[in-house]
Write a structure and sequence with these properties.
mainly alpha, 268 residues, 10 helices, Four Helix Bundle (Hemerythrin (Met), subunit A), globular
Length: 268
């Protein structure tokens, strides 16, 4: 447990550096601040990987393992998107609260875990592995989409109030760029959600259980999330949606998927 706490402390120090770097101004793709920021993300990814290995080998609790894997996947996606998209880097300040909550949640789940036997079965079936990974990828991407659409929501509010905020106007992408990124992330989220549900269904069929029992609370909430995200894409394309409405609908999807993945497990 001392090693676990040490990894968490190093992770939190890395997060503090991440937070400070979010307030530095990155001018272009070759800016030294951008290189330092990318190196910090890579460092957090490596620490997340070490944390995952420790939990996998020393902590027998499913929720702790899934939370650790979620952190690892989220930083990996963040790193890749930051490398390929300068506009995405400009959104980094929006995600500070999310990472803070994730680190705190991971820490307390890790030190207060209760052993269960399910953790040893998580990686014994290829469909279950695919289901877990695509589920966490979908959750990470819808989180990023929510943060991106929140940027549009805030900017739209300031425009309607005819107010000028230097930090918002200079640090964040334009409303058009933010909304475009949010919708692109939703497309990828839909793909991962579909793969997650199908792989979960295949795994359920392999276990020989009745199909009616597949549609539990987790699956129903995931289906609601999928339907809402598809609805956002379709309605926006046909009749259009305001940035505020897109944000509210993505927020609703995020609430459903969060409760599906973590809320039910915690209540259970």
């Amino acid at each position: 447990m001392n090693l676990y706490v040490s990894i968490e402390v190093i992770s939190f120090l890395g997060f503090l550096l991440f937070s400070l770097l979010c307030f530095t101004r990155i001018q272009n793709n070759t800016d030294i601040h951008r290189l330092v920021y990318l190196f910090n993300l890579f460092f957090l990814f490596i620490i997340g990987f070490l944390h995952y290995l420790y939990v996998l080998n020393h902590i027998s609790n499913t929720l702790t393992l899934v939370t650790s894997l979620l952190t690892l996947i989220t930083f990996f996606i963040f790193l890749i998107l930051s490398i390929i998209s300068y506009q995405f880097i400009r959104l980094r300040i929006i995600f500070i609260p999310f990472f803070l909550i994730l680190f705190i949640f991971r820490f307390f789940i890790g030190i207060s875990y209760i052993n269960d036997n399910d953790v040893f079965e998580l990686f014994e079936n290829k469909f279950l592995i695919l289901h877990i990974i695509t589920s966490l990828l979908a959750y990470s991407l819808i989180t990023i989409s929510l943060g991106t659409s929140f940027c549009t929501f805030v900017q739209d509010k300031y425009i309607k109030k005819m107010k000028f905020n230097k930090i918002i106007n200079e640090s964040l992408p334009s409303i058009y760029e933010s909304e475009l990124l949010a919708i692109r992330f939703l497309y990828i989220t839909i793909i991962f959600l579909i793969v997650s549900l199908l792989s979960g269904l295949y795994y359920f069929i392999e276990t020989g259980q009745k199909l009616i029992y597949f549609f539990n609370e987790k699956v129903i909430l995931s289906l609601f999330t999928l339907l809402i995200t598809i609805l956002i894409i379709v309605v926006r394309k046909i009749i259009g949606l305001s940035g505020q409405m897109v944000f509210k609908m993505i927020l609703l999807s995020y609430i459903f998927i969060t409760f599906s993945y973590f809320g039910i497990k915690l209540l259970g």
